[in-house]
Amino acid sequence: MKLGKVEFCHLLQIIALFLCLSGMNQAEPSRSRSKPYFQSGRTRTKRSWVWNQFFVLEEYMGTDPLYVGKLHSDVDKGDGSIKYILSGEGASSIFIIDENTGDIHATKRLDREEQAYYTLRAQALDRLTNKPVEPESEFVIKIQDINDNEPKFLDGPYTAGVPEMSPVGTSVVQVTATDADDPTYGNSARVVYSILQGQPYFSVEPKTGVIKTALPNMDREAKDQYLLVIQAKDMVGQNGGLSGTTSVTVTLTDVNDNPPRFPRRSYQYNVPESLPVASVVARIKAADADVGPNAEMEYKIVDGDGLGVFKISVDKDTQEGIITIQKELDFEAKTSYTLRIEAANMHVDPRFLSLGPFNDMTTVKIIVEDVDEPPVFTSRLYSMVVSEAAKVGTIIGTVAAHDPDASNSPVRYSIDRNTDLERYFNIDANSGVITTAKSLDRETNAVHNITVLAMESQNPAQIGRGYVAITILDINDNAPEFAMEYETTVCENAQPGQVIQKISAIDKDDPPNGHQFYFSLTAEAANNHNFTLQDNKDNTATVLTRRNGFRRQEQSVFYLPIFIVDSGSPSLSSTNTLTIRVCDCDADGIAQTCNAEAYILPAGLSTGALIAILACVLTLLVLVLLIVTMRRRKKEPLIFDEERDIRENIVRYDDEGGGEEDTEAFDMAALRNLNIIRDTKTRRDVTPEIQFLSRPTFKSIPDNVIFREFIWERLKEADVDPCAPPYDSLQTYAFEGNGSVAESLSSLDSISSNSDQNYDYLSDWGPRFKRLADMYGTGPDCLYS
Question: Care to name a GO molecular-function term for this sequence (predicted)?
Answer without folding.
Answer: calcium ion binding
